[in-house]
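FAQ: What does the model actually see?

It sees only this:
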Amino acid sequence: MDKQVAPSKSKQWKKWLLIASIPTLVIGGFSYWKNQQDQGRVQKINASSLTISKVTQGEFSDSLRLRGNIHPKTTLFLDTVAGGRVEERLVEQGAYVEKGQPLLRLTNTSLQLDVMGREAQVTEQLNFLRNTQMTMETNRLNLKRDLLEVELQIAHLTRKITQSKPLVEQGVLAREHLLDLEQDLDYYHQRKALTKQRQQQEEQIRQLQVTQLEDSAKMLQSNLSFARNNLDNLLVKSPISGYLSEFNVELGESKSAGSRLGRIDIPGEYKLMVNIDEYYLGRIKLGMPAKISLSGTDYQVAVSKIDSRVNQSQFTIELDLPTETESVKRGQSLDVDLMFEANSRQALLLERGAFNQSTGGNWVFVINADGETASRRQIKLGRKNQNYHQVVSGLKANERVITSDYDAFEKANTLQIQL
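And it is asked to produce this:
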């Protein structure tokens, strides 16, 4: 009887290893074939759809072309002090107004009644003050009169005692009569001292009360003046001279106290406000030079303020315009060249184009010497301004580069240019 012989374990492992390696070899071979295909991929393109630029040697100015809006350098907001209903509009928006010129008339019945009530209250308090002062003055005069009467009695008694003493010694008058006179004299001396003491106390109290009453009168007058000023504020006047750039009021409209009525711009002083991509936030500095062109004249300006708050991926800077630029108007737009470097320098230059959106500035298609094909080439670009990229490496002067959009052939390695 034949016996079955089992295969060795080493042969089994070799068999399974060969089976497992087959998919790996297939995938690797396909990837190699696909890579070779991509590397040699050629795509035909019509020359009319391309923009070709020549690499040049020239001065590179590290600047950024932006567009900003002109705003007044100094603006005063116009708010209501006392609320009311718009009764009369005396000027129109955009007019030039002088300081103190009436702009708007409001009516406020409640405020008018309040002022009348305050006037009546102040009048009543002032009358009470005058009556109090009169009463105090009357008391002062009464005390003075009492003191005069006491001094008169003392003088009479002193004279009578002087006349009676010899008669008492002679026995003509009784001693009791002299004692009564002396007793009355002593009483009036004590009364005089008491009256003087009372007079001093009354004078001190009177001076204190007069001071308090005068302070009260001043406060009442001040309150009345404040109430009348509120009434005067119903006629809104211009606090400064300038252009009334906004005036948001309509006849019959009600305005509460503190409501915004408009704004007044001081003429002759303007600033340029520019929104910049947040990418440049770290490069913008105060005092950075810039150049604007206005009415055919170039002006040198500088960054005067940086608002680093980012809104919708942008931040804002301000540039003060020269005072001689009187022809500008609020809201006008101007182009400005922001100079990151004050001086230009020699560099290889490539015109800006849509190619950078597809390649990120890492590679381009360069026209070959035959002029009929273009090859992909790795490059490195540096800074850019409104017109050019600075070429760091990968290109030479006078080489021609496709700078238009690459979306249609960005996966190709070679382009055949058809005329």
